[in-house]
Amino acid sequence: MKKNFKSLAIFILSLFFLNISSLLPALAETATPQSGNRYPIVLVHGLGGFGRDEMLDFKYWGGLYDIQEYLKAHGYEVHTAAVGPVSSNWDRACELYAQLVGGTVDYGAAHAAKYGHARYGRTYKAFIPDLGKVDPETGEIKKVHLIGHSMGGQTIRTLVQLLEQGAEEERSYTQDNLSPLFAGGHSWVHSITTISTPHDGTSLDNAINKGMPWLQSFIGFMSTLSTPNQLYDLKLDQFGLTRYQGEPVDAYLKRVFESSYWKLNRDLSNWDLAVEGARELNGWVQAQENVYYFSWATNATRKFLFADYQVPKITMNLFLVPFALHIGSYTRNVPGQVPIDKTWWPNDGLVSLISQNGPKINSTDQIINYDGNPRRGVWNYMGVLEGYDHLDIIGIGTLWNPCPWYLKHAQLLASLPADYAEVPEKDDENTQTIPEHEQDLTSEDNLNPSFSETTEEQTNEIPEKDDENIQTITEHDQDLTSEDTLNPSSSETTEEQTNEAPEKNDENIQTITEHDQDLTSEDTLKPPSSETTEESTISEN
Catalytic residue among 66, 200, 267, 348, which? Predict the structure, then answer.
């Protein structure tokens, strides 16, 4: 009976998230890149996210699929973090740090005193016990690749800033046992990848906060699921908002809504996700010179037939449609606040496209088109995934299997050269480090050992896509001031459709040419162009 109930619950939950009309074909397979490092990958969820042991085994990273296990089956070390679903980026970064290296979460004495919550949180076992350590045989420094979806992209940026530069307010505050996180000097993150991240905030958050405390309502609803077996875990222990064993739902909800937490509007997610909150975050969280930064954008709207407004494409998850309509027509021009005009209208249902390529507002970070040659210390913008909404790209609300797409990006991350400390001299030539150009992923000792026996047919397992879903534009047409940049059309798009996107004022939003998107070759993480043969494309769902 219990087993049947669980199966029924999973089925119902799947139907809730699943919008069959948003079936999207997979990305085109590319050639296997060369291996340069063996660093583990850690996945970090966004607003409202959950861990692998929550939501009746429904996966945030994969939905009905399982991105973590898929990558592990291909030889990668992968971990899935579970941080506060609605906590601030600072608190989430502290929790992520504790999960990476192990130990009790330390939010910082100065931060805890400022916002009136407990300094210490939960205790975790380390994902990567030797993070930052140097291999005495090879001199290689153990680092990590961080991939963040939505708000998770802001969180991993914050963590890297703290690891590298520390926090002066914590160092100058009288306290015992300063956390190493706030001391700085820890170059432990090799790359950051953000997917559908509101680097400059989302206009949805600003608009809704004018009329209703939406996050508080969300907390109240989700808290009813926070049962002793943790169907959904709010992870707000620092604010005393953990539901007690046997506590009635109404009593718990009363504590939630009466908590001073809601008066502290600078230490929770809806401030960090607001445009003004993102502007504040961008002022002190900066790209670090020795870290690779990659950004992916998603868009699932198009120009309305009778106006410049952006409306959802038919493939958008029904849950996101009302939000997409709001973002697609919202403007403001308030003194002291960041202006929001029609350049913010194209969106993926929750985040404006203009906000996703990297931090621009109050930021000195540089954003460049990815040309197949990853650069450190700048944002390598990978382009727009057209037709994918905010949930599609993590496998929620779609029948599309996202796992092969993430494998392609994992191969790119594995191809980045490893970092070394001073390597001791070796007398035995057999102990020397294998040159990067000889570390093909098809070898038996690489990150993807299974590839050594993979046939050409097997490496092309990802169904080819129709280029309408994920489109790119030529490097000659990358100016955002053109009307067809953010939503490039396919070769079959009419003249009226190619002029759907509003004019863009932000030259930082960039796309890349289809022939320059290769991880290591002319094949690409993104779909084929309109000239691709029939064998290499499939029809859109």
Answer: 348
